[in-house]
Structure to design on (498 residues):
């Protein structure tokens, strides 16, 4: 339809793509930081209201609903973002496909609830699963609206929606936790955030879907989305089978400890990786016909992500005890050992996962699916092997599998593109070296200087680690030039904002 043409046309994004991406990245990164602070604050509050068993029950439910959520979008949101040209009839048809799938998933999860409750030997799960099943239909009704906002790179609007829905859900959770609702506080959090987000996306997008149409060219988009769903299904097991096995064979308590360690570690990582992927997806989609620009843009994204994420993970590894004590309280100190093991994997995981971004934006969805199948099978096998040694055994096996897969996965992901494994290594070697040197140095200093107060110890650690990291990075080959380039990014963002 004519009145919606401006929503679907994104040709104007080609103009000054670098500055637009930097601006979008700055907005998204700032919003992710705010979300991280809010999530961190809520974690500190809720961890003192709820028990590990409460988190364990929620983790059991999420291990199932997370799998079902893979099917809710059918990969069609990514298809909308990645597509070079799209129209009202196509997106309307995709909207109704998403709605139908969302309703179907809701009904299936509700029907599975009794069986899941029996599988985990947890009667509480029945009602939890029934209520959480409604989230799929609610979310499905705004998938295409959110995709259109992303396609137009309206990241400031997206940021406001995410923060507002996050705050709404957390507020409800804290109130529920205060009044003794236990694990229901976490359920209410999820439900409230989904409702608020769906309503906000409709209001912000200002697009009303029409009736579905046949023969409007959505077949290739559905096929593309199906490959992504296939990958997500396999990836789900490689990300959640550990929770399922621990919950089934070790119980809610150990699962609560494991899931909280993983959640706390991934909170900052996700909030860094998310903005990069969100901004890079539509940008790389526009550059897929220009291999040289595609390669340069991708490598800069990887380098910047490594520059920020790797020293952060190293800092969290060194200061794990202080972080757990400050954020969760002394009753969660059993998390420390699990957290340290998982942090070893989180060091490389954010940058390694960007290989999937290359495959998606170049349209290689089938290869993306095949590599996902191999990786998932390997990681799932590692969970089974590690289970005999308890929670730490599962975590250790996962880390070993992750590092064994990095090089082969990168090689095959880059093989038919303008990117190469050697170029990737060249983009990340300085952050890797600087982070490791800084980590060992700070660890040595920490043995000599003991600060009893956790907050003060972390504050001193942040200042000292940042100074050492920048100095070490600058002393590496071309390191000072890299720092100057990052500074120029900041100037570009400011200039764009004027």
């Amino acid at each position: 339809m004519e009145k919606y043409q401006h929503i679907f046309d994104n040709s104007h994004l080609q103009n000054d793509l670098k500055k637009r991406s930097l601006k979008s990245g700055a907005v998204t990164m700032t919003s992710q930081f705010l979300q991280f602070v809010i999530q961190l604050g809520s974690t500190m509050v809720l961890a003192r209201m709820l028990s590990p068993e409460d988190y364990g029950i929620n983790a059991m439910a999420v291990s199932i609903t997370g799998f079902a959520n893979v099917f809710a979008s059918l990969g069609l949101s990514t298809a909308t973002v990645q597509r070079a040209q799209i129209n009202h009839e196509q997106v309307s048809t995709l909207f109704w496909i998403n709605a139908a799938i969302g309703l179907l998933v809701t009904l299936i999860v509700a029907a599975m609830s009794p069986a899941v409750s029996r599988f985990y030997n947890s009667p509480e799960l029945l009602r939890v699963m029934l209520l959480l099943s409604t989230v799929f239909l609610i979310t499905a009704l705004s998938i295409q609206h959110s995709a259109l906002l992303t396609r137009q790179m309206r990241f400031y609007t997206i940021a406001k929606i995410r923060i507002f829905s996050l705050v709404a859900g957390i507020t409800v959770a804290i109130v529920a936790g205060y009044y003794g609702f236990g694990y229901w506080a976490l359920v209410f959090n999820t439900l409230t955030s989904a409702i608020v987000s769906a309503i906000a996306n409709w209001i912000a997008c200002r697009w009303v879907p029409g009736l579905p149409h046949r023969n409007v060219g959505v077949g290739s988009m559905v096929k593309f989305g199906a490959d992504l769903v296939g990958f997500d299904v396999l990836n789900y097991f490689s990300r959640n089978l550990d929770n399922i096995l621990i919950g089934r064979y070790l119980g809610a308590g150990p699962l609560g400890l494991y899931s909280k360690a993983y959640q706390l570690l991934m909170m900052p990582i996700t909030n860094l990786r998310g903005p990069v992927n969100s901004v890079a997806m539509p940008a790389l989609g526009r550059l897929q016909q220009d291999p040289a620009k595609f390669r340069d843009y991708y490598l800069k994204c990887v380098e910047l992500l490594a520059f920020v994420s790797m020293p952060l993970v190293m800092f969290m590894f060194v200061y794990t005890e202080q972080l757990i004590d400050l954020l969760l309280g002394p009753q969660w100190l059993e998390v420390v050992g699990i957290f340290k093991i998982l942090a070893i994997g989180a060091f490389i995981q954010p940058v390694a996962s960007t290989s999937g971004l290359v495959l998606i934006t170049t349209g290689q969805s089938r290869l993306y699916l095949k590599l996902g199948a191999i990786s998932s099978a390997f990681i799932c096998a590692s969970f089974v092997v590690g289970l005999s040694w308890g929670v730490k055994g599962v975590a250790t096996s996962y880390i070993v599998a992750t590092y064994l897969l990095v090089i082969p996965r990168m090689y095959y992901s880059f093989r038919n593109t303008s990117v190469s494994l050697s170029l990737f290594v060249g983009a990340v070697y300085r952050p890797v070296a600087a982070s490791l040197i800084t980590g060992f140095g700070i660890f040595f200093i920490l043995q000599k200087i003991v600060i009893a107060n956790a907050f003060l110890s972390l504050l001193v650690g942040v200042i000292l680690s940042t100074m050492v990291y920048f100095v070490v990075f600058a002393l590496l080959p071309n390191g000072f030039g890299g720092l100057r380039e990052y500074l120029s990014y900041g100037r570009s963002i400011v200039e764009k904002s004027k």
The CA atoms of residues 1 and 312 lie 47 Å apart. DSSP finds 22 helices and no strands in the chain. The chain has a mean pLDDT of 82. The radius of gyration is 22 Å.
